[in-house]
Amino acid sequence: MKKNKLLVLIALLLVVLSGFYYFKKSKPNKDFIVTKVANEITVTSPKYKNIIRTAEKNIFAYKGEKTYGLIFVNPDNTFKVVGELDMIGHLTQGLILIKKGKYGAIDFNGKSFIPTTYDEIYLGENKKAILKKDDIFLIFNSENDKKLKPLEVDSVYKVNNLKLIFIKNKKMGLMDFNGDVIVQNEYDGISSFIDKVFIGEKNSKYSIYNLKNEKLSKDYDYIEQVSNNVYKAGTNEIGKYAFISSTFSSDEKYEDIIKIDNTYYTGSYLNEENVDLFNENGKIKRDLKKDEVKKYLEKLLKKSDLKKMK
After folding, report:
1. Residues in the chain with pLDDT < 50?
2. Where do the structural domains in the chain lie, given as residue ranges?
């Protein structure tokens, strides 16, 4: 009989303790107040003034005195807080780069995806990443990776979610997030913006190259980017600009190359009022007066609008 009473008491004690644990675990967070009006979510706080909505409508970031945090709001207005962070990075491909002593990544539900044990992390598409730990670079292809494959490079720089610049034996090249080489490391320098083409430096001379590693222009002493895949370049000997794109290159004869909108550019002659009008594929019209450019562009726009209507 005494033994049965003892078992009952133990059972009751376990129930009380588990209930206390559940209450403690599910205790609401009073630092934040979540409201939803017509599917519009807002988060306010009596403790934190700096709360901003991220690119995801249900994820908010906040800043304390010395640390940062993230609030993940569920459809039922409950929420999860990931706080005491040293840094919050960009949201990309379903992951958020964070730093808590070391770098790691969490998913859009606030769940740890890459543990905060790395010196550097570069996030790519489809939740791939390049990790650095103890001066060794590693290829991360999925959260199920148990043995990360080493990447034999000296350093890497992220270009976008598809490409990285890598340095090996003091030369630069391009690779993807699987560690596969796109362009061999044979450059002294590579431009940070890369789409169809890039600026490559060899022996203090600059040229335009495509992703097949084909040279598209002659060597110049300087090249400046005007917009995506469009550049102006020149030599010290001539001292003027050439217009260069992925498909076209002009002579060095312009005082300047200016972007007008997302399609058209003008090249102006030194000490003259005349300009040439370009798009990425080459020269559209030459020897226009500067006040004629606007009229000519309006004609081109009207033609394109008529084609769309047909």
Report:
1. 8, 15-16, 19-26, 305-310
2. 222-310
